[in-house]
């Protein structure tokens, strides 16, 4: 592409072959640059960028669904002035879509490399095993967070135009920021667990199924626990599933006290449980990559 | 400068499996053939050299660095071509090699330029914009070689580069490796279980078996004395060896035989005189064509 036109020009193909090997004398950037490159590459992979049209279908389908929900909510608000789903409730409202996105993108990021035996190509470069795992995790967290953020931004922009006065916009912004932060919590918890599960399976379909299974299989447990038992069991039931666990954290952090939500009393417990879950996932993920593809 | 050196390098997996056993070897820059049967410890050695596995004991030096301590610095200057399939099928060769060049530390533009250039050097032109999944085995091997070469390493470690190739593909790959080692000026270690294949292109051959060093010698030193005399005596082989050594004939022990380089016709007479003087029963004395393979054979199994 950037090659100068072939000498002579009569038989370009033959001449290109004759260009001698050139040693590389430019800069060699270190491990940090390698990790950043892997992160950017993985983030692009998550949305199918730089890849075939087929790889773009699923992520963009989910992204457009999330966008559609946000657009409808914005439109309703513009029409009726009523905010059906506040910012902090938005990630929870579309939690199934978030889960679907994790199930699609998580395996895309790690299972492909496992199945293709690509890891030796990474590990023979100035990059550590842990770097690989963390770069992939960071990419998935970002990939999950971006559509949520985009949707909330759309809602905010729509809302900012439908309220009067700068003060009201500022209030709107005050609601928007916790919503975005809560999306971040959502992204971190979902991505850590999803990536860990995906990293155990080489086949993408199996990995995607496993991700969905782990998230969904725990939901009935919450249902059963909250149906029977005492008030306390009911309030603690949500700990049993990652989806409701995140909800508990959200209620604790972002819903003002006295709003009457169930797990509010055990807020710190939910927060601790979420941190413990993420930490455990990261540790297991690092352990997984310490052993794989030796 | 010594390219690779190991001192008493040992690697055990658990208590029972010993992959490398007290391996001490040093090689100079050039094209090095690392030969041994499957399971001889070639891949383990490569992984230790890359700093991917810690040795159980002993140490290794690559390009003057210790891979156990400075793994990242070593890996920045070394290119590795794995034995098995390792290419994601849904990327184009150009994208994959560019990406891996960046992981090796090349800035964005340099990575793209070097990727195109390297793919051209290994013989991939317009195909590089097609997805790797549709490539033939030969083309895939070339992409694997290109990704090892893209960051202009000082040392290439190639694990069975001719695996799965047809005879023409093997020749082309060996020719390419030879060019890299000579024209490009990059040292290459070629792992293979086929001695006949690598001896054609290598300066140095290192043979390992069951994790132990069989032999490490320059190919030139092996082939300068192309013809050898095989001497076998029914008893007193050691005495004869000592005597011949004293005479400066440089005998090499090979099972029950002694192999003596044939310098001129006088060599015959000197051996016969030595045998007569020691009063040993001579079993055989004949001239043989000296193949590199024989120098590496652990035991002489052919007996006439």
Indicate the topology.
The complex is a heterodimer of chains A (294) and B (304).
Chain A: H1 12-16, H2 31-46, H3 53-80, H4 90-93, H5 95-116, H6 119-123, H7 129-162, H8 165-198, H9 204-227, H10 231-236, H11 242-254, H12 267-291
Helix pairs in contact in A: 2-7, 3-5, 3-7, 5-7, 5-8, 5-9, 7-8, 7-12, 8-9, 8-11, 8-12, 11-12
Chain B: E1 4-13, E2 17-27, E3 31-35, H1 42-49, E4 57-62, H2 71-76, E5 78-81, H3 93-103, H4 108-121, H5 137-149, E6 155-159, H6 167-182, E7 187-192, H7 195-198, E8 204-209, E9 212-218, H8 219-223, E10 227-233, H9 237-246, E11 252-254, E12 257-261, H10 266-278, E13 282-289, H11 292-296
Parallel strand pairs in B: 3-7, 3-8, 5-6, 6-7
Antiparallel strand pairs in B: 1-2, 1-4, 8-9, 10-12, 10-13, 11-12
Helix pairs in contact in B: 3-4, 4-5, 9-10
Helix count, DSSP H or I runs of 4 or more residues of chain A: 12
- Give the termini distance of chain B in whole angstroms: 45 Å
Structural class of the secondary structure composition of chain B? alpha/beta
End-to-end CA span of chain A: 37 Å
Mean pLDDT of chain A: 83
Question: What is the gyration radius of chain A calculated from CA atoms?
Answer: 23 Å
The percent range for strand residues of chain A is under 5%
Dominant shape of chain A: globular
Number of domains of chain A: 1
Instruction: Give the helix tally of chain B.
Output: 11
* CATH topology type of the largest domain in chain B: Rossmann fold
Task: Kindly state the percentage of residues in helix of chain A.
Answer: over 70%
CATH-derived architecture of the largest domain in chain B = 3-Layer(aba) Sandwich
Would you mind describing this structure in some detail?
The complex is a heterodimer of chains A (294) and B (304). Chain A is an all-alpha fold and 294 residues long. Chain A has one domain. Chain A has helices at residues 12-16, 31-46, 53-80, 90-93, 95-116, 119-123, 129-162, 165-198, 204-227, 231-236, 242-254, 267-291. In chain A, helix 11 (242-254) packs across helix 12 (267-291). The longest helix of chain A is centred in the middle third of the chain and has 34 residues, at 129-162. Mean pLDDT of chain A is 83; it is low at 1-17. With 304 residues, chain B is an alpha/beta fold. Chain B has 2 domains: 4-221, Rossmann fold (3-Layer(aba) Sandwich), CATH 3.40.50; 225-296, Alpha-Beta Plaits. Chain B contains 11 helices and 13 strands. Chain B has helices at residues 42-49, 71-76, 93-103, 108-121, 137-149, 167-182, 195-198, 219-223, 237-246, 266-278, 292-296; strands at 4-13, 17-27, 31-35, 57-62, 78-81, 155-159, 187-192, 204-209, 212-218, 227-233, 252-254, 257-261, 282-289. Chain B has a 6-stranded mixed β-sheet, sandwiched between helices. A 4-stranded antiparallel β-sheet of chain B has the order 11-12-10-13, with helices on one face. In chain B, strands 2-1-4 form a 3-stranded antiparallel β-sheet, covered by helices on one side. In chain B, helix 3 (93-103) packs across helix 4 and helix 4 packs across helix 5. Chain B is elongated. The two termini of chain B are 45 Å apart. At the A-B interface, helix 2, helix 5 and helix 6 of A face helix 2, strand 5, helix 3 and helix 4 of B.
